[in-house]
Amino acid sequence: MSTELLYTSAPQGLRHGSRGFCTVLTTAGMPINVIGKLEAISSYRHLFPPDSNRASENPVSLAHQRVNLGGQVVSVLSRIAAYGTDYTGRTNKIAHHVTIDPSEMPAAGPAWLIGQGSVLRSEWLGQCETPASGPAIPRGDQSPRICTSWKSVAGDAGWGGVVAEAISQPDATPLWVIYPLNQQGRLLELIDESIALLPPTQRWRATFNTFAANIPPDVECKIRFVPVGTEEARFAASSGKAIDLTKHPSITTASQWVERARGLVRRESGTPISSGGFNAVQEVDVADPVESSWSSDDDAPAGPPPPIEPPSLPMDLIRGRERRKKLVMAGAVLTAVIGLTAAWTVARLMAGLPLLPGSAPPPAPQMPIDITPPIEEEKIAPTPAPVPVETLDLVLHYDKKQLLAFAVQHPDEETPLPGPVSLRGYVRIKPIPDDGENVPDIKRTKLVAWGGTAQSLGAAEELVVVTTQLTERTQTMTVQRLPSIPEPLGPTEVYWSRQTGDLIAIAEVDGSSASEWFSEQGRAYHTAAVKLARFADLADSIERESASLPPTLKEVTEAFFRHLFPGKAEARIESLIRRAGGVDLSEASTKLKASLRSKLEDSNKALKKDEQAALVQIVDDGGQLAQVAAELHDAFAVLAEGYRVEVPELKFLESETVVLRRVPLRLHFSW
Description:
This protein is an alpha+beta fold. Helices cover 31% and strands 20% of the residues. It contains 14 helices and 22 strands. Strands 1, 2, 3, 4, 5, 6, 7, 8, 9 and 10 form a ten-stranded mixed β-sheet that branches. Strands 15-16-17-18-12-11-22-19 form an eight-stranded mixed β-sheet. α9 (400-408) packs across α10 (518-546), α10 (518-546) crosses α12 (569-578) and α10 runs antiparallel to α14 (609-641).
């Protein structure tokens, strides 16, 4: 049976007297040593503070690790992430751990299970709990498949096989994967593809962490993902056992795992080839690509294990050794005889003598006369240099100023979305060398192609690029419009700056006639605007009613506003947008009511009728405020998850036959 533990900052934890960072939820009956161990692996390091514009980029640690608990090795699924600020205003985090019993482990593996979304929690509603059991564990299986996500992110599907091979090795040496922050949303699907290559009986051997910071030495974690620029990434780069996704590495070792990940099979079956690292080169003979599945000795059912006791007839072993010794000696004698015979034959022929004494000499060989005309030497065209490839994520962000303007209008559930909803983003195409260490100059580009027929670039034009942040900044760039993307994305325009190498994408989505992909995003966008406006209204109501309270009670509400909501309605909405809804008001609201009640009891003075009415309204508004904040948080979570779409590969060409650069591109519409 699964068990669970939730760890975050709270004014009162589950254990008597605990507060601050503590356990707030645990399965009933969980031993104290298990609780202590799970709390010990709940550490988290923020890369950006909660009030930073980049707070939403703080990585989420999704992990399957094995922990020794009282002499028993237990599988633990974990989610640890930044969680805004706590009840004291300090930086907060939330950690949820689930232990899995072997009988519950689905054949699909741990990454698949985490990806189901029903096992690990991402929020706490403020109530300490001791449920009777852990979350229900779904069952499921998956087949091996070509590692298309690895190909999209790293340029070669074979990297999925490198990771699978590392998992299959019995040693404890970790394999590091260095990644840029804009790819953190794809890490779970990468490790899941690698795990799917393994036989089902081995998949739960895969241990990993998508933000491997401060892992205790007694915790088993084989595949460790770390963001570029961190201390862990610098250590990983120097370890010699790392895959750096920021440098588009090349695989120089062929193994059966790499072939499987690429969707290739051997012409002849055999023992899987171990790569032994990233630098050895071993050529293998491969057959044609297959679609998405294959067979291998690794996938065959394992037979019964061989006996471990010594043989019952030791004399058979002795006789076998004697027979092998005699065969080796006979082979050596035969080799010597053949060598002497060959030497005799060569010597007699070179001297012009017959092979055997007394026999006639061999006739002189007659050279045939070649009457065929000379064949002109075939000219082989030089092999063109490989075209550099760089996989890029182009993130289009919602215009936060537009959402602010919409929320300030106080929309309700019937108010239509503003039209159109704007998203903008850019990504820079950096120079990378080809295999010959030459750096093709894509400024020579005359044609571009979205995977198919090459088309001309648009004429150079001036484009005013406006930031999507709340701060108003603009930049004028000289760009050329690319042909329309052959995907049903709605009106999404892509431009290229020849001077800077930037790809700029601008989307204008009409909420009334949006394509299917925008439906969920549109609902979340509308909910966010409505809840932002409602939040501001409730805050204004609390502040307005506070004017009717006696001074001792007014001090409590004023402190509440100073801490959370300075300014007036528009400033409060702007503050919430900057925090992307990351405000947990359940504790703040409870604390407000408790403080008002305490002050009222201490005063021993009856309230007037209007003061009583104001106090009741404030308490009611505070409760609604907490509920609205929770709904706002959920809406922003949907916007942040966004929508991802693969588009045909973008190619930059100097002519119809000369490709300068290939760019596999993925668009991500997100907050």
